[in-house]
Description:
globular; 29% strand; alpha+beta; 32 strands
Amino acid sequence: MSDVSDYEQERQATIARNRELLMSLGLVDDAKTFKPSKNVQATAKPVQPRVKKPKEAPMPTRQSTRLRRAPMDPNEPPAAKRKREREEEEKRRRAEEELLAAAEREREAKRPRHHDIDLQTLTDDLEPEELNDLRKTFVEILKTPRPRKEASDEAYVFDDGKKEVSEVKQLKEKLGGLKVVSRAKVTQDRIYSAAYHPEPTKDLIFFGDKHGQLGIWDARAPVEEVEDEDGDVAPVEDREGGKYWRLQMHWPASSKSSISSVKFDPVDSFSVFTSAYDCTIRNLSLTSGVATEVYATDDILLTSMDLPPHGHEMWISDADGGVTHMDLRAHRSHAKRYQLSEAKIGSVSVNPTRPYFLLTASNSRELKVWDARMLETLSSRSLRSTPNSPSRPSSRGKVEGDSAIVFPNEVDGETIQKLLATKKGQSTTRVAWTHNKSVSSAYWDARGRSIVSTSYDDTIRLWDIKPSWFEKDAVFPSSRSFSQIRHNCQTGKWLTILKAQWTTNPDVYPHFSIGNMDHSLDIFSCKGDHITKLADKSKITAVQAVTCSHPNIVERVVSGNASGRCVLWAPEDL
Length: 574
């Protein structure tokens, strides 16, 4: 009897006939010829985050009442039974107290934190080696103070058009060749804001995400090869670049704590400020590694903040249409809030050369320039029900005093409208420009004379303010933008709002960057000239909604998307 079945014999005969047929047709029966070539360019795929060793999950501890009870002795004496029942009752009582305490701790974990937080607590998930690397990075950038550079309002203003064309051409040459040189998943969730540290020897970027996390990315730091779960090493093009650390700056770690803006101390860049939807502003000292609460409100969402060059003051915008002024040298209870709009104010920008001129953008479709000197003349009323004693952290890290929440002195909208109605107060609002829909953002450039605004009407608009207009105590004469750029700003629910961001480098022709819905970055000059489009379909797979550029190096731009992945654009031969 044959070991091969009839079916197998027939199958082998069919294979032989098919092979003969292919050979007669001149076809080679080689499976390798049907495989794609290794030289074929791979489709774009997101950079793969480094695999970190997961923490061991605690063993389950729940037990039924029957299992928790000790075996009963049928011959147990009545006195011993009563004693045992008392002990079991005491155990049940203690267990209930522990459950109540655990529930209270869980509720406490969902509340904003108002006490000082050290670096180890902020980086709870980091290994000791990673935390040590972060401290070393801070030490490196603390060697030299990096104050914000000052610019003249007459810089790059030419009477000769040829000089301007030359400057634009040089800028195109520098920025047109930027490529993707590093990628990483810096934060766990959607990028909301970003700031580029001015240290010229590093590419150190701070990203704020949707859940209150501050991601710090050293984009060009050398990284050791790490094997994945299967023991393979990812190709260079798919590997994460640089090193990053995640700090839980705001709490709870939910969408209630989205970091709306990130700013460095303009005096030396030795600390970083973050504002968030948990109604707080924190200051992380890179020297001490301690995050301190600077400001907190009860239930008003803080949408943005800005600091003048001297760094002693802060202006804060909120979702209720207010702008708060705070002297950082005084206690937070001396803050003064002005009700400037009935709609949400999405951004506030301080003029860098004339800090008493504020620029606000709101959902009322208007962006306005305010003279803060006139606002300061208004009397205010306190919103505090009781005197707010200075809060101070105790040895346990909890806030002592009545409350950490600030009830600032309030100047209501009616008082401001009365000022605007007077002849002297007409110049409080120097100008009010209108978009067709809500204004997402509006910012001064480094010279304090150009303004760029973005809006849901799908336009980017540019204004130029002559220095002589500031000197006159009167409304600005021009009410129209000199340039309008069509740009898709319909980000929807799942993307961060697109905002045009100026370069803060005063040593280069003024320009700004903004994300594009086609997964690219656009860079425009202060006159509206399109400088370049940065794109790489083989590596970029999502909208780069948040952008910023290096304050001291022209050829550096970074961007971030809705999954927390960030990209460094720089010369390819970096």
